[in-house]
Design brief:
Layout: H1 2-9, E1 14-19, H2 24-30, E2 36-40, H3 48-61, E3 65-68, H4 74-82, E4 87-90, H5 96-106, H6 119-125, H7 130-136, E5 138-143, H8 146-150, H9 152-156, E6 163-166, H10 168-174, H11 185-201, E7 205-209, H12 213-221, E8 226-231, H13 232-253
Parallel strand pairs: 1-2, 1-8, 2-3, 3-4, 4-5, 5-6, 6-7, 7-8
Helix pairs in contact: 2-3, 4-5
């Protein structure tokens, strides 16, 4: 895990897989194709046990798990870290005050006020795990509103915030724009530039979904290094649709065989 964090902090891009379904086998099978795993317990179909099992699957696949928690709630942030995750992603952090509150939940004293005693961390790493957790367990805050973009530099400067995660869909919606429109440089470039520069100035990293070559190139050009390159939902939809379309194209071009001589049609009843 520390090698991955060292690479991230050194500016080496890290490609991530988003998981929203409670299927640890997905991580076992395709997790090693990626550098890190985003477990989405905010919008995914995941219970406590589902998230725990997905984190364990990440451990088996030797990939760090970042859990997106549903809210800023103190207990939920600590609980995700107590599962043994490599870090948490906290949604909709709009202000410095909110950033300080989530640092309080995610980091141990003296930096924060995280409660000590996670069962799994103690079992895996011993009772001294808290002595290095503030450096080895990441806190990533999501910038998902025009207000958050305006405050990005101040949020990035908060001690204990390790990275900024730009949320394009929510920013577009809050500007009255459909999140289904193409994410072009003209539309998102100013937000990406501001967040990327804010993270760099504070010595932090910047994260963003970057699915497809054009999106990835744009993200890299603005200094983003924690990158979401795909997800279980997209792979299910895309793979299924392509196979179905290919098969139906064959069916449409192929004449059905003639019925055998003497065969009858219709219901025998």
């Amino acid at each position: 895990m520390s090698t991955w964090i060292d690479q991230l902090r050194a500016g080496k891009p890290q490609l991530g897989l988003c998981v929203m379904h409670p299927a640890p086998g997905v991580i076992e099978r395709i997790g090693p194709d990626w550098d890190w795993i985003w477990i989405d317990s905010q919008h995914g179909l995941l219970s406590y046990n589902d998230v725990l099992n997905l984190v364990r699957a990440c451990d088996l696949a030797h990939r760090p798990a970042l859990v997106r928690v549903p809210s800023h709630e103190y207990g939920g942030i600590g609980q995700a870290l107590d599962m043994g995750a490599a870090g948490v992603i906290v949604p909709v952090v709009d202000t410095v005050e909110q950033a300080r509150a989530v640092v309080h939940a995610a980091k141990f004293p003296p930096l924060g006020g995280r409660s000590y005693g996670g069962r799994r961390p103690v079992d895996l790493w011993g009772r001294a795990y808290s002595e290095t957790a503030n450096q080895t367990k990441l806190l990533v805050v999501q910038i998902e509103s025009p207000e958050a973009v305006e405050n990005a530099a101040a949020i990035a400067a908060v001690p204990g915030v390790d990275g900024l995660f730009l949320g394009p869909d929510d920013i577009l919606m809050r500007r009255g724009i459909s999140p289904t429109v193409p994410r072009t440089r003209e539309l998102l470039g100013p937000d990406m530039e501001r967040v990327g520069l804010a993270a760099k100035a504070a010595g932090k990293f910047a994260a963003v979904p970057a699915i497809g070559p054009d999106s990835l190139k744009m993200a890299l050009s603005f200094g983003f290094t924690l990158l979401v390159g795909g997800g279980d939902v997209g792979f299910l939809v895309g793979g299924s649709k392509k196979m179905s379309d290919d098969a139906r194209a064959v069916l449409a071009q192929t004449q059905p065989p003639a019925p055998p001589s003497g065969a009858t049609t219709g219901s025998p009843y």
